[in-house]
Amino acid sequence: MLEVSIALLIVCSVLTASASAFLTNISAVSSAQRRSRATLFLETVLEDLSAQDYDNLAAFDGNQVFDQATLARSSYTVDLTVFLAAVDLMQVRAVLTDRRTNLEVGRVTTLRSRR
Question: Closest Cα to residue 97, out of 55, 34, 49?
Answer without folding.
Answer: 34
